[in-house]
Amino acid sequence: MNTLKFISSNLYATGSTQKPLPPYIFILNAAKVEQFPKPMYKQLLILLSLSVKLVQSADDVTVGGNRQAYRALCGIVALAEGGVNVPPEPAITSDDYDFVQQLYLTSSSDERQKMFYTNDTPKKVHNTADEAGQGKKGYEEYCADWKEAAEQLLTTPKPPRLEATGISKLTPAQRKPAHSKIAKLAGKAIQIKKQIDGLDAGKVNRTSATAKLKGAVYGENAATADSTTRVTAFGAEPESTARETVCVAGSGNQMVKTVASALECLCVK
């Protein structure tokens, strides 16, 4: 960690004359150092101080041969340090969904519309597909939504939004092509509703998302750059293993499994 101490002292106290131990870390463009927030720059320096003591090559970070990949990884580090802003779950109402199902039923053929209702006076809506004589046709999962829409169509006056479309004034021949389009829309609406109903509210929040991201950057049980070591970055001490083996992406130990390990391999590519 002597390298880290040397570079940090030169960033914050330029009078330092302490000489670092190899491997040396150089700044690609010293003029741009001040553009980094100092806490953020410190995090990067700590990560770069990790060393697997490998022979340098023409693509090392010291000559900037891999600056684009390096910049991309640093962006992930910045994201982890800045925290993840998880947007709030949108307020979802059933109005639009109900409207689509009302359109679907109203545009259906007269024969199909009749199957939703009993012959009673006043009319009532069948509770199940079996009651409507439509059992074992795959309608079971849609029945509850269709029942609700059918009940809304029995109200007087009809839903204003539906009446505004003028769909109830169409002839059976005119409704047929409209229904083919509306049926596809209604089918998609049902699938989207099923996905929304299956969401686990509150499963992802700022704290949990940031923790996941920091684990990917620094390694398991290393929540900050200060706590990062070669073991947390690579999963195991990589010093005695050839670079060709260590610097390969993978989930196993002694592999590039974190951003910290990827940065180290880039620095001594």
Automatic annotation (TrEMBL):
Membrane topology of this protein: Lipid-anchor; GPI-anchor
Keywords: Cell membrane, Glycoprotein, GPI-anchor, Lipoprotein, Membrane, Signal
Subcellular location field: Cell membrane
GO cellular component terms, semicolon-separated: plasma membrane; side of membrane
InterPro entries listed in its UniProt record: Trypano_VSG_B_N_dom (IPR025932)
Trypanosome variant surface glycoprotein B-type N-terminal domain segment(s): 56-269
Domain of life of the organism encoding this protein: Eukaryota
Biological role stated in the UniProt entry: VSG forms a coat on the surface of the parasite. The trypanosome evades the immune response of the host by expressing a series of antigenically distinct VSGs from an estimated 1000 VSG genes.
Protein name per Swiss-Prot or TrEMBL: Variant surface glycoprotein 3690
Species in which this protein is naturally found: Trypanosoma brucei
